[in-house]
Amino acid sequence: EADIRGKQFGRTPQLQAVQFDYDLYELSRAARIALRDNSAYLKGHPDLEILIEGHCDERGTTEYNLALGQNRAKAVRDYYIRLGVPARAIATISFGEEQPVCKDADEKCWLENRRAATKIRSQVSSSSLTPN
User: Fold this and answer.
1) Could you give the CA distance from residue 11 to residue 116 in angstroms, rounded to a whole number?
2) pTM of the full structure
3) What pLDDT digit, counting tens, does each position of 65-90 carry?
């Protein structure tokens, strides 16, 4: 995997996050479609370093959610590699349940939190990147 220490990665609107079903890390059909679109962007920008963040909803233990988030990030990384994105450019990290995008305790919110987000860092600064 790529080295992510000491590096700031940001979001760009061209890259979609993907959601996961409860307690799963396999990619749905909708996730694979979104990742195909993402991979086209990533392959078109070979100067990018890529970070895949795995996230979970609040249910489950901290340890379980960290492992599940890592499996989600790895599933996305593996799919990108199968689609031709260079493996050396992709790193993964799990945040488990620690960075929710929604804090309500309901299924709609939990679905938003069960995600893998693709973030990027370029050797050249880009105004289209936003932190976190």
Assistant:
1) 12
2) 0.89
3) 999 999 999 999 999 999 999 999 99
